[in-house]
Request: fold
Amino acid sequence: MSHWTDAHCHLQDQFLTEDGRVSDDVRETLARAYDGGVDRVVVIGTDETTSREALALTTLPGPVEIYATVGLHPHEAASDVAPIVDLARTGHEKLVGIGECGLDYFYEHAPRADQRRAFATQIALAHELDLALVIHARDAFDDLFEVLRSEGVPARTVVHCFTGDTDDALACLELGCDISVSGVVTFKNAGSLREAVRAVPLDRLHVETDSPFLAPVPYRGKTNEPAYVTVVGEYVAELRGIGFKELRDATYANTARLFGLPDR
Reply:
């Protein structure tokens, strides 16, 4: 059954796995997604190159609607954010968000000060262009909330691949952020995340793959792809005790609202 949305995926050539590219032919990846019931994806930028590639992918013909974001990931925050700002201001018709951006204190591939600076710049950009803000947050919620309060939370904001606990989720919601759930929710050790997902109001919830990373059980360890968002969605529906159609329709509408997409 169609009308699933993958709210966050990476289909650019830049993203490599042990198996190679996410797909030697993105068209094949998207065909599998469509056959599995997915008819809309949002391809996420993480630096200048992948942001440009994300925008280019939106021109691919086919039954799957493709939208894009541009952003500078916290891992890349020591780089100049200016190219992302310039790219966003071109006004591409399929550009629907800024990010992923945010703070990552688990890996700390960039100094924390640079992460905060790049994050603040991209928050301001989302405000300026009235675009959705896509947040990456890992082991950094206190500082994340501090920056958001300082800069102001854009009206349409989502914390992607949420991996916090219930308190973190409630704090995000109180600030006005939506929550997006990936295949991590299916992992054996994700008990606190599952409790958090139960606490998120249905009208603030999204599902994603974050492909090619974090494939859900039973595909864990394999290359992830948008087709598997239905696995995430059906798992979340069961977790919340609702029908998968109700979850699918709600998340489809939520992601349409978040990114300003047509809502069927």
User: Anything to note?
Assistant: The mean pLDDT is 94. The radius of gyration is 17 Å. The chain has one domain: 4-259.
